[in-house]
Task: structure prediction
Amino acid sequence: MDMEPFKKLSNLEPTGKVKKLVALIFLFSCCLYGRVAWATTFVTVQPYEIKFNYEAGYSNDALTISDYSGETITSPEWAYGCSPDSFAYIMGQSDRSIQVRFSSNCSNIHLIINLTVSSGTGIGTVCNHFEANYTALDWITLELDGNIPGSVGTRSFSWQWSVYALPLDITNYCAATSTNSTSHTYYTLLAAPQSPMSEPWSSVLDYACDWASGETSNVSITTEITEYLYGCGFDYETTQGGSTYSHPNYYSYPHHFNVSQLISDLSNPDNIDVNCLDMARAIVTFGNALGTDLELIRFSGGYALNHIDPIGSALATNNTFSTPLIDDDCRTGGFGYHAFAKDGNNHIWDATLRYDIDSDPDNVINSNPNCGETSSGQDWELPCNESLATYLSRLLDNWSKPDNDYPIDCSNPYDCGSLSDNENIIAY
Result:
């Protein structure tokens, strides 16, 4: 049979005209071969498997992500009769492709494939894709017309597959259109995910995409994550300042971050104690899963604090690990170190505490080491997108401006410290 008429079908619009032309060709073929055209079995076509991440990289397809436990999700993400897996794209991408294969009651057929979004926010459509001489369960690459949404989020949608099939075996099968529906859930990220979530976990994306839903920038995404973590229900660990989500052998593996346990605790955060390392690592981990480029910074050396409101704490304080808390300001301790998240512009985010930004941030008359009376008033601010210099000046009592090389000059043991890039975070 001359195949040239079929090759031209993919350029014809609208769909109805294409179907009419195919029907005419079908009838002509029956006459040409001298066969009866009134076969009793109609061709059925059913999507069998769909791949969204089917090749290396993500220039044409979806990103590589992991499941809730960190195991790589492999294609196909959708299979007939199975629970579908989620997939992810970078927001605003266009010209995406998928791969699909169909099951059919007829082995060899010509297909015209139309794909529309029947509900939700989809990732694209297909109009009159013609596939000649298709063998059931072979893979077809379909180019999608449309863009990925332009903001961070988790979205669901349904596709309606309308597939017109023309059998090569025209004696036993009749041409027919099959209509089926498939449902999918996907994530949109700001940019390529970064360490320690360069292959982000779906459990991390579930939270991060919810907290930062609709956001479109590094600053807004990181701020939303920080605000949620500060208010999620965790309490500040005031006994020893120990990390809850570090590797059990803390001193040998301080860079290992138990994300699995953190995810579990986020569903019931009551009575969970955390410290600055936990929250700083959480900001970096959840932010970088969405494509921010954050790093964890540690400020070490020991220093006294201005008035702060620690995460989940009932009482504001400038003497976090000792008593008295604020009255008389006879402090016996401070921070031996403090960790927070920083971006490439030297702006920081801290989900461990709010600090007092009014004219009396120490909140007492007379400063350490003298005792003084409590003064009234606080103007709390959660440090988000704050310049490093401003952040340290508001956090530390009697802080001296650092030189370019650090460390900070200090007048007593709790006024000095040094900044250092923290170790790489390894999620487990």
Notes: The radius of gyration is 30 Å.
